[in-house]
Amino acid sequence: MNVSIEPVTGSPLIKVTLTNNYLSASFYNFGARMHQLFTPNKEGLSENILLSYDSVEELLSDKSYFGAVVGPVAGRIKHAQWKDFPLEKNCGTHHIHGGSQGWSYQFWTIELLEDPDVIGIRFHLEDSVSGYPGPINVRVTYKLVDHSLIMTTDYQSMNPTIVNPTSHSYFNLSGEGQQDLDTHSLLVNASHLLETDKETLPTGKIIPVKELPLDVSKMQSFPAIFSSFKEGLDDCFILNKTLPTALTLTEQTSGRKMEIATTNQSVVLFSTTGFDAPFLINGKPMHSNYGLAIEPQQFPDSVHHPSWPSIELPPLQKRQQETIYRFSCL
Ligand code: GLA
Predict the structure, then answer these.
(1) Most buried among 66, 164, 282, 318, using CB within 10 Å?
(2) pTM for this predicted structure
(3) How far is the CA of 270 from the centre of ligand 1 (A)?
(4) What is the pLDDT of residues 231-252, one digit of tens each?
């Protein structure tokens, strides 16, 4: 059990690494982001199972939320408008992922958890720069417990606002990005999917998973997923709350398995389809279908769908969401 803290020379970045007998995870204060996560493969070899920037300069100019906490509100908000309150239009005429000054792009303060039985770190932010009503106080706690990483997000605001944070790690369980998504399989314990329009905004229609071109509530390989969802996945699945595991992802060459449980009502999955970029991720240029962003959250654009669960946060009311990532081998 070990914790290390390394300031990155010549930058405001601080890297924290947590290690227990099974897992090792590193984080940056920039966006309270998870940078790397090492888990053993079926031979016991520990490798990084996230898509991670090779260079600190690229990480500091990130525009795609690699490993970051996204907030105050994840996903798109139509016409960048909540009631009478205008938000930044950073996605055409819409708002996305908390805007250009959102939580992913702020520097958070770091608290190490002192309890001798716990390996953990807590990031704090008082957000008054994203442009949302606030200030919003948020704490993100990451703990390693045996084979699990537990992420807890607590928040409250001085003034009425909206909050729907997520974590935006891209997973590639092959280790060090050796394979692409086509060696992975996925099961989502979902009951429905939110239909989206051409701009990836929810239309309001909710489709039962059994009516999708492929039933992802059963284990499906990515080649099968890509042949049914021609543009890949960039979709919000409503979770079946009667089941303890929200999602299972496996990878055949490494034998790795990840199971996710979350208090959130839905999960957005983004398969990086069409996401080609020159920066290096695990030694390779970023490319289509390289990893799966798994973003547990409440429904996107719910401010425009009054019958959906609300993300409005009254003053001084405390809210919490928790997501547990459990690792094992097949
Ligand atoms: C989410 C969105 C995608 C994309 C990625 C990050 O998954 O739904 O369209 O913006 O974030 O780039």
Answers:
(1) 164
(2) 0.97
(3) 6
(4) 999 999 999 988 899 999 999 9
